[in-house]
Structures are given as structure tokens and as C-alpha cells.
Design a protein that fits this description.
Blueprint (H helix, E strand, L loop, with lengths): L24 H4 L14 E6 L4 H17 L3 E5 L9 H11 L5 E5 H7 L19 H6 L1 E2 L2 E2 L2 E4 L4 E5 H7 L10 H11 L9 E4 L4 H4 L3 H6 L3 E3 L6 E2 L4 H13 L3 E4 L5 H8 L5 E4 L4 H6 L4 E5 L9 E2 L3 E5 L4 H15 L1 H11 L6 H4 L2 H9 L3 H7 L3 E2 L7 H16 L5 H17 L3
Parallel strand pairs: 1-2, 1-3, 8-11, 14-16
Antiparallel strand pairs: 3-15, 4-5, 6-15, 7-12, 7-13, 9-10
Pfam families: SBP_bac_8
InterPro entries: Bact_solute-bd_prot1, SBP, TAT_signal, TAT_signal_bac_arc
Organism: Kribbella jejuensis
Length: 432
């Protein structure tokens, strides 16, 4: 991985494969038998953030600043021995063993299932939740309660390589374009002789594969689940979205990343061999560092109306005693203050967590100086988030298998959809 590898956040998504878990890490961290403070009244917090490179440098700097200004709290970052994409499994194992961190970086799509553990702290009334963007607020709310603090906010847009468009004689995409436009443009950009693909998509079948399809589903009038939560909401429209992917595959204009984390997909794009890729603002620092001439446009749609997805990540707090929960809440609240949030946003590739940060002169200056960043911010106006329901990970697994089957040409869109719908409906039929 390069020195300037992207922040492994999200949604997220778009993350490197997990590093080998450090043996013995769980045993040395986590649960205390007392209330959490030492004889001098100092509370030590174990933070498992899973960030690497740019993201790690940003959070480490903030931790150092917090420790200096809060002498009664000492945050120790870097525990867990895994990157963010494997944090859920590591934390889940820790909860089962009775040895877990005080704070962990948890993807929003995993939060609801994790809250089944009574050790996940309830932060209702403890955070200035109304200061957050709606997408961030929705992502940390489970059954009407605040179960985490927003850690990172993003949106999904399309980044394109200007040089490849010029070389192929193709006009750059514009807001309001359609998925038919996207498919046609991808075909025009593809050049097998030069190893150039029009676009790419993660093909493992994990959440990185899945979350990109939800804007397509929403735009077609569908949803992840129905209004009553008893069945899926994509059964009538999912085939059209999968047919779009199948057309990209049959046109041979799609690079399908065969490995978890999408690292290869982004290396192909950064290497100048891919015309367009759906990504988030975390990618921009690396694009700038690599000197790639790029443009950013909103996602295409079927309706011509803008819609996208935001995949906020969270700081989830675990109950290791009242003193630790209080100190951890103070730390994550401090991170959301504009003075700190602006540092994380600029260095780590997040969008402002709060509206107040977005109004800072420093953010406006950064946004004006960062090509395409404002497109991601504007996209928040039409961004939706995945439902914070405990069954989402199972739904994602089945939908991911369907998408991967289509991307690899193993199943038709109709057959893949039917199988996923049947499997997901069985999941939803079981009372949670």
C-alpha cells in the first residue's frame, strides 16, 4: 500500500483487506473490574480505530491534542490489530470473551446488529445530535435511540479521468445524466488493447459491493425493506438495477475487483486505466497526491433527478464502567466540535460532521481549493442512508451474492434477484 493510501473508512467502504489480527490484543485491552479510573482519577480509554496512513495520521494527531488538553483522560489509539473493515468481527469476538475496547470505529451498516449487546452504551441525551447532518443523525439512531456518535460522513459520486475522456474523444459527464448515459460512456472509454476499462465495481459480494446499488434502487422507487419491515422493498425494481450492471459486464467495459477492500479497483483508476469510478470524498487527497487530472459529477440516475447514498461511520462506545463511558462520550463529543472536526475532515477525507463545521472559513477555503469536493457536499442534500435494522447485514450478504453472481456472469439479473428476494424475505420473516 502506498504512503498516501486513502483513509480506510467506508463505507468504508472502499477499504483495504484486513491486516492479520494481532494475537493477544484482546487480552490486553478492554474491560476493567472497577469503574474505570485509576487512583489518581485518570481514566484510560482503549480506542480501536482501524485507520491507516492518512486516516491514522489524522486521528493520532487529534488523540495527542485531546490527551494534552484533558489531563484526567488518556486515550490510547490503535488497538484491535485490524483495519476498519474487520472491526466488527474483532469487537464481536471481544464482547463474547468479555474483553472489549472503550470506543471502536464501527460502520453505520453494522451498528444496529451490534446494539443487541447490552454493552453498547446508550448515548441518548448525551450528544448534540441535532447539530449533525440528517444523514449522520439517522445513521446513529436505532429504534429511536442514539447508539453511537458519527465518526465520518461521506456521499457517493462519480470521479472521472479527464485525460482518458479527452483521449477517447468523449464529452465529460454532466449533472442530470442517466444510467444509460453511464453505460454508453463506459463502453466508449473502454480500450482492451491498452488495458483501459470504462468503470469498475467491487465483485466480492461484501457491503462494498452492495451499498452502491441502493441509490439505483431508491431512484427506481424501491427501498431496502418495505414500510412495515416485513419484506424487501426492491423486489419489483431490483432487476433493472442488476440489468444495468449486466450490460456493463457484457460490454466488457467493467473491471470487477476480485479481492476484498477494492484496493485493486482504485489502483487501476489511479494508474490511469479506468475512466470513471463511484467513490467518496476520502479519495480526493490521494487523487491530488497522485497528480491525476479528474472531475467529479453526481451519480447518474434513471429519473434524471439527483440521489445518492451516505454511509456514515460511527464511534461506538462500550460500557466498561461509568467513568469510562463518561470520558469516552467527552472524547467523541470533542471530536465533533468544529475545531477538531475540520482537522479530521481535511486530513482524513470526511465531509463536515456538523453544519457548524461546514460554515467555517477554513472549510470553505478547503472546499474551494479541492477540486470536486463541493459536489460531494451538495450531494448530501439528496443522500439517504441504509436502514439501521439488525437484519441489514444478512440482507446485505444475500444482495451482495446476487450482485457478484451478475458481475461474474454466473446468473441472470432475474434469477439472481429472485434468489436474493426469497432469501431476504426469509430473514425478515423471523421476528428480531
Amino acid at each position: 500500500m502506498s504512503q498516501h493510501a486513502r483513509n480506510l473508512s467506508r463505507r468504508d467502504l472502499l477499504r483495504a483487506a484486513a491486516a492479520a489480527a494481532a494475537a493477544g490484543t484482546l487480552a490486553s485491552c478492554g474491560k476493567n473490574n472497577d469503574d474505570g479510573a485509576d487512583p489518581n482519577g485518570v481514566v484510560t480509554l482503549d480506542l480501536w480505530h482501524g485507520q491507516v496512513d492518512l486516516g491514522k495520521a489524522a486521528i493520532d494527531s487529534l488523540i495527542a491534542a485531546f490527551n494534552q488538553s484533558h489531563p484526567k483522560i488518556k486515550v490510547v489509539g490503535g488497538g484491535g490489530g485490524v483495519t476498519a473493515d474487520s472491526m466488527l468481527q474483532k469487537v464481536t469476538a471481544g464482547l463474547a470473551a468479555g474483553s472489549y475496547p472503550d470506543i471502536a470505529y464501527i460502520f453505520g451498516s453494522d451498528l444496529a446488529s451490534l446494539t443487541k449487546s447490552p454493552k453498547v452504551a446508550d448515548l441518548t441525551g448525551q450528544l448534540k445530535i441535532d447539530d449533525y447532518w440528517p444523514a449522520a443523525k439517522d445513521a446513529v439512531s436505532v429504534k429511536g435511540k442514539v447508539r453511537a456518535a458519527p465518526a465520518l460522513l461521506d456521499s457517493l459520486c462519480v470521479v472521472y479521468n479527464k485525460k482518458l475522456f479527452a483521449a477517447a474523444g468523449v464529452a465529460p459527464p454532466k449533472p442530470g445524466w442517466t444510467w444509460d448515459d453511464f453505460v454508453a460512456t463506459s463502453k466508449q472509454l473502454t480500450n482492451p488493447a491498452k488495458g483501459i476499462f470504462g468503470t469498475g465495481w467491487p465483485g466480492v459480494g461484501d457491503e462494498d459491493t452492495v451499498w452502491r446499488i441502493w441509490p439505483m434502487i431508491w431512484d427506481l422507487g424501491g427501498d431496502v425493506v418495505s414500510g412495515d419491515g416485513k419484506k424487501v422493498g426492491f423486489d419489483t425494481v431490483g432487476a433493472q438495477a442488476l440489468q444495468t450492471l449486466d450490460k456493463l459486464r457484457s460490454d466488457k467495459s467493467l473491471y470487477v475487483d476480485p479481492k476484498p477492500g477494492s484496493e485493486q479497483l482504485y489502483q487501476v483508476f489511479l494508474g490511469g486505466r479506468m475512466g470513471m469510478v463511484a467513490t467518496g470524498p476520502w479519495q480526493l487527497p490521494e487523487l491530488k497526491d497522485n497528480g491525476l487530472e479528474y472531475g467529479v459529477v453526481p451519480l447518474p440516475s434513471y429519473s434524471g433527478k439527483p440521489i445518492t447514498i451516505s454511509g456514515p461511520d460511527t464511534w461506538t462506545i462500550f460500557d466498561n464502567g461509568k467513568a469510562k463511558v463518561k470520558a469516552a462520550t467527552e472524547f467523541v463529543s470533542w471530536l465533533a466540535d468544529p475545531a477538531q472536526d475540520i482537522q479530521w475532515d481535511i486530513k482524513g477525507g470526511s465531509l463536515p460532521i456538523t453544519k457548524a463545521t461546514a460554515e467555517l472559513p477554513a472549510w470553505k477555503k478547503h472546499s474551494a481549493e479541492t477540486n470536486g469536493l463541493e459536489v460531494f457536499v451538495t450531494a448530501l442534500d439528496t443522500a439517504k442512508v441504509r436502514p439501521t435494522i439488525t437484519t441489514y447485514p444478512q440482507i446485505s450478504q444475500h444482495v451482495g451474492e446476487a450482485i457478484a453472481a451478475v458481475l461474474l456472469g454466473k446468473q441472470s439479473p432475474a434469477d439472481a434477484l429472485k434468489q436474493a428476494v426469497d432469501q431476504c424475505n426469509q430473514v425478515l420473516a423471523v421476528p428480531s
